[in-house]
Design a protein that fits this description.
The complex is a heterodimer of chains A (about 160) and B (about 260).
Chain A (H helix, E strand, L loop, with lengths): L7 H30 L12 H30 L5 H26 L12 H34 L1
Helix pairs in contact in A: 1-2, 1-3, 3-4
Chain B lengths: L9 H27 L6 H17 L2 H9 L1 H21 L2 H8 L2 H11 L2 H6 L2 H17 L2 H5 L3 H23 L10 H25 L9 H32 L13
Classes of the chains: A mainly alpha (about 160), B mainly alpha (about 260).
Chain lengths: ~160, ~260
């Protein structure tokens, strides 16, 4: 049963589960590097609207659960021999990129939870850098996705 | 405002420790009885249970109690231990399963019948447990209850008991290994866990922003530090609870021919 060609279901599972982990890892990096180590981000700044605090709570919970559930689902796929490497890496980087972009646009700009850095004049450049990095991760994930599709095709032939 | 005159008396500090050690010795005695019957009981369960008891011993120790009386940071450490971390240890120790295994079958059936009753079913429902648990916290920190607690010793004990009982109930309803007849689906329990995590993060941010609880003599910096402790400490406890939840899911026997037994 393990010698079957990679199924479409295995591909999509590998991608989605790794996507979850990517989101969780990026959120953890944001929390550890930018909040704790560099202290660029603030836990709360006075520009944060009241309603954003609640949505922030929901987001925070989703990130933590993404990380925990992602690793359990990944182990589950592995023990069923359904893990496809390239699909998983594609999902991982796209998850990271998606979170980075979401954080840069929704959290920083729409919800105004906090900014990338405080006390700097050229905040725009920080924002551009932040989001450009997100786009870069998405592109990396996308190219891996193409590679995964090519690999699947050669396997099925 | 004066510092409240409710420094606990000696018996008040010794009583919890006595009760906790009594419970722990019952647990070990139960393990001993089970082994004498030739049945095994995992040491990891005993370790979890012992860790839960140790955390409670520390939380109710005179040192932490007196720190908590004059500093909200101390209170928050106590809260995290009593309401979140210790219950996880106790629940993972599966004390009810141990009890059922050593008791005669008939008594066991009576206990099982009690746990299948509609009252327990209602109380042990994750949504009820969530309301009791997180609802109690919103009540404590957003209303004058916290300030009142500082002036009435009985209220103080009641709040701590509520923390422990509601924390245990919630943890058990989400991820307990102990029998839970009619326990709702994994999907619902995951949703409740998600809401609990979000509400906990939201409440600690509210405390940080609005310097809650009100009508207290704590320094604003101390309140903000306590709120941060609650935020990150709560994260830790709830991630551990999520790991326990997913472990239950992961260890279920799966049919290797069928994909994705998970929530779909």
């Amino acid at each position: 049963m393990n010698q079957q060609p990679p199924s479409a279901q295995a591909a999509s599972r590998s991608f989605r589960v790794a996507f979850l982990i990517g989101v969780g890892i990026m959120a953890a990096i944001d929390e550890i590097v930018f909040h704790q180590l560099l202290a660029w981000h603030h836990f709360y700044d006075r520009a944060t609207p009241e309603w954003a605090l609640f949505s922030d709570g929901l987001l925070h919970a989703a990130e933590l659960l993404a990380l925990v559930s992602g690793f359990f689902l990944l182990s589950d796929i592995r023990r069923q021999n359904q893990l496809l490497k390239y699909w998983a890496w594609a999902g991982f980087f796209m998850g990271m990129g998606a979170f980075q972009l979401f954080d840069g646009i929704v959290d920083h700009k729409l919800l105004k939870l906090h900014q990338v850095r405080y006390g700097v004049e050229n905040l725009l450049w920080y924002d551009i850098g932040w989001n450009a990095f997100g786009v870069l991760l998405l592109l990396l994930g996308w190219s891996l996705r193409l590679k995964a599709k090519r690999t699947d095709r050669t396997h099925t032939l | 405002m004066e510092i409240p005159h409710n420094a606990p008396s000696l018996p008040a500090t010794l009583l919890p420790a006595f009760l906790l050690l009594l419970i722990l010795s019952f647990y070990f005695y139960g393990m001993y009885l089970l082994r004498r019957k030739g049945k095994s009981w995992g040491w990891y369960r005993a370790t979890f249970f012992g860790m839960g008891i140790c955390m409670l011993l520390y939380a109710f120790s005179p040192a932490l109690t007196s720190y908590a009386h004059h500093d909200i940071r101390g209170h928050m450490v106590q809260h995290l231990l009593i309401g979140m971390l210790a219950p996880l240890g106790l629940v993972l120790g599966a004390p009810l399963t141990l009890t059922l295994r050593i008791l005669p079958a008939q008594t066991g059936r009576r206990i099982s019948a009690f746990f299948s009753s509609s009252l327990i079913h209602f109380l042990g429902h994750p949504v009820t447990a969530l309301m009791l648990n997180i609802g109690g916290m919103f009540l404590l920190y957003l209303t004058p209850l916290f300030a009142l607690m500082k002036h009435h010793m009985w209220l103080h004990y009641l709040v701590h008991f509520h923390f422990l009982a509601a924390g245990y109930l919630f943890t058990w309803s989400i991820a307990g290994p102990d029998p839970a007849p009619g326990r709702p689906s994994l999907r619902l329990r995951l949703l409740v866990l998600f809401i609990s995590m979000a509400s906990h993060a939201y409440l600690s941010k509210l405390m940080y922003v609005h310097l809650l609880p009100r009508h207290t003599t704590f320094h604003p910096d101390a309140i903000q530090e306590a709120a941060l402790l609650m935020y990150y400490g709560g994260d830790l406890a709830e991630v551990l609870l999520a790991i326990a939840f997913f472990t239950v899911w992961f260890r279920r026997k799966i049919n290797p021919n069928k994909l994705a037994p998970f929530v779909r």
